[in-house]
């Protein structure tokens, strides 16, 4: 795919008239071609302003979302990812479901070699919840990597700092 074709497929990047969607909306995600398919490398996003709503009380939940992946053919365009994460703003769901849905949506979209999503939610009621999701392409070294990282993802718990 040429750079010109690739840029035409990205409708959000540089768009000054961005419409913000306030309900869960995975169709907003856009991709572009990975130009470095010949090597493994991580792409990492940190989203310190993630919000969703508690499905029981309607109160806002706040988190930092850490998203890392090893691309294969496609990369996610960052503005579309930002808008996708923003679409959770008025979405009522449990922390665990948000993180698993984000992971599964991105695996379906990107078909990455490896992907992980970690949500670090601020405490409510005196307890924080930090769900972790990961995926490694089945039958490959990435599946082994996913199993290893899942087992070892939190060997060194953080010092409590009330986030």
TrEMBL record:
Which catalytic reaction applies to this protein?
7-aminomethyl-7-carbaguanine + 2 NADP(+) = 7-cyano-7-carbaguanine + 2 NADPH + 3 H(+)
Q: Which GO terms describe its molecular function?
A: preQ1 synthase activity
Identify the residues that bind substrate.
76-78, 95-96
From the Swiss-Prot or TrEMBL record, state where the protein is found. Cytoplasm
Main function: Catalyzes the NADPH-dependent reduction of 7-cyano-7-deazaguanine (preQ0) to 7-aminomethyl-7-deazaguanine (preQ1).
The record's similarity note reads: Belongs to the GTP cyclohydrolase I family. QueF type 1 subfamily.
Name assigned to this protein: NADPH-dependent 7-cyano-7-deazaguanine reductase
What is the protein's species of origin? Streptococcus loxodontisalivarius
